[in-house]
Specification:
- This protein is an alpha/beta fold and 342 residues long.
- It has two domains: 68 residues, Vcp-like ATPase, Chain A, domain 2 (Roll), CATH 3.10.330; 201 residues, 3-Layer(aba) Sandwich (Rossmann fold), CATH 3.40.50.
- Helix 4 runs parallel beside helix 9.
- The radius of gyration is 23 Å and the shape is globular.
- It starts with 30 loop residues before the first strand and ends with a helix.
- Keywords: Methyltransferase, S-adenosyl-L-methionine, Transferase, tRNA processing.
- This is SAM-dependent methyltransferase.
Length: 342
C-alpha cells in the first residue's frame, strides 16, 4: 500500500504570517518603490490623501492604493513611474533606522551558514533596527522561536515597528527583551534549549559562557563584528574556552555589473567591507578538541586599552534621531492595521 497521501487528502496549508503583505493590490501603510524613466528609485509609505513630490510635480498616493504590484502610474506633469513592493533587500535599506543595519549580503550568509531552519529556536543580540531579525523570522517561520535581546529601548522600538510593518502584525515566533544578553538569556532560556545564537555586538567574547550554557550540543554560534580586533579577540576567547570548534571567519563583498549591449563591465561602486562573520559550533559536554592547540601570542593589555578608548570616542546616535526613527517605523504599522481592519 502506498504510504504517501494524495494532494487532495492533505490538509490545506496554513497561510504564513506576512505572506498576505506580499500579495494582492497595494494597500495603505505599505512601503512601495517608485522607479522613474531614468531608473531612479524612491521608497514611500502609502497613506490615503498623501502625495509624493519632486521638482517635476507630484504623484497622489490614492493613484497607487488598490493597484496591482508592478503597475505604471503618471504624475501631475506626465512623469511616469513603475510601482513595486520592495524586495526584502530594498525594504531593510530604506526602513527607519537608529543603528547601522546588517546588510542583506551578510544576513543571507548568516541564515545559510548558521543553518537557520524552520522551527529553529534562535537567540539574537543586539537588535539594532531589526534588519537581521526580519531575515531570522522568515527563516524560523511561524512555528519557530526568535528571542531578540537589546540593551536600548529606542532600538527595540524601532526594530519592533519595522518588523510589524513588514509582516503586517506581531510575529508569533518573536520575543524581544530589554537588557544584557548574559543576564537575560540565562534568565529566560533553559540550558541546552537553543539551536542557534547570533550576536551583533561590541564585545561578543564577554558572552561566551552564557552562549555555551544555553546552546544545544552541535548548535551554531555566529557573530557579526566590525573590526579585525573584535574578530581576533572573539576567536581567541573561543579557542581558549574548549567548548567550541575551531572558529571560521570570513567576509563577503558584492559587486554589480553594468549591462548595456557589449559594454559589459563591473560597476564602479560596490558594497565592499561591512563586517566580519565568525562561526563556531558547540561540542557535547566532555567532548572537547581532539588535540590541544598551540597558544600563539595574543593581545597585550595596552593594545586592548587603546582599542576600547577609540571605540568610546565614536559619536553616539542622538536620542532625537532615534525617537524620530521609532515614530516613522510605527506609522506604517498603524496605517496597515487600519487598512486591514485589525
Amino acid at each position: 500500500m502506498n504510504s504517501f497521501c494524495s494532494p487532495s487528502a492533505q490538509a490545506a496549508p496554513q497561510v504564513a504570517v506576512g505572506s498576505s503583505q506580499r500579495r494582492g493590490p497595494l494597500r495603505a501603510g505599505e512601503r512601495v518603490q517608485l522607479s522613474d524613466e531614468r531608473g531612479r528609485l524612491n521608497v514611500i509609505c502609502l497613506a490615503p490623501g498623501g502625495q509624493f513630490h519632486t521638482h517635476k510635480g507630484f504623484l497622489d498616493h490614492d493613484q497607487i492604493i488598490g493597484c496591482p504590484d508592478g503597475s505604471r502610474v503618471t504624475g501631475s506633469q506626465g512623469q511616469r513611474y513603475h510601482v513595486f513592493r520592495p524586495l526584502l533587500s530594498n525594504f531593510v535599506q530604506s526602513m527607519p533606522r537608529g543603528a547601522a543595519l546588517v546588510y542583506p549580503k551578510d544576513a543571507g550568509q548568516i541564515v545559510t551558514m548558521a543553518d537557520i531552519f524552520p522551527g529553529a529556536r534562535v537567540v539574537e543580540a543586539g537588535v539594532g533596527s531589526g534588519a537581521l531579525s526580519i531575515s531570522l523570522l522568515r527563516a524560523v517561520g511561524d512555528h519557530g522561536y526568535l528571542h531578540s535581546i537589546e540593551r536600548r529601548q529606542e532600538f527595540a522600538d524601532i526594530a519592533r515597528g519595522n518588523v510589524q510593518s513588514l509582516f503586517g502584525q506581531v510575529h508569533p515566533a518573536w520575543r524581544i527583551t530589554l537588557g544584557d544578553l548574559q543576564e537575560q538569556v540565562l534568565k529566560h532560556e533553559a540550558p541546552g534549549s537553543i539551536d542557534r545564537v547570533v550576536l551583533d555586538m561590541l564585545a561578543p567574547w564577554e558572552c561566551l559562557d552564557a552562549v555555551a550554557r544555553v546552546l544545544v550540543a552541535g548548535g551554531v554560534w555566529i557573530s557579526y563584528v566590525a573590526t579585525v580586533t573584535q574578530l581576533s579577540r572573539t576567536a581567541e576567547a573561543i579557542r581558549a574556552d574548549g567548548r567550541f570548534t575551531e572558529p571560521l571567519a570570513w567576509e563577503s563583498m558584492v559587486r554589480e555589473w553594468h549591462l548595456e549591449g557589449l559594454a559589459v563591465r563591473p560597476e564602479h561602486r560596490m558594497i565592499a567591507h561591512t563586517g566580519f562573520l565568525l562561526m563556531t559550533r558547540r561540542f557535547a559536554d566532555g567532548a572537547g578538541p581532539l588535540s590541544p592547540r598551540v597558544q600563539k601570542k595574543t593581545f597585550a593589555d595596552e593594545d586592548l586599552d587603546a582599542w576600547l578608548a577609540l571605540e568610546s570616542t565614536k559619536r553616539p546616535t542622538s536620542g532625537r534621531k532615534l525617537r524620530r526613527a521609532a515614530r516613522s517605523a510605527a506609522e506604517g504599522t498603524a496605517l496597515a492595521q487600519d487598512d486591514s481592519g485589525t
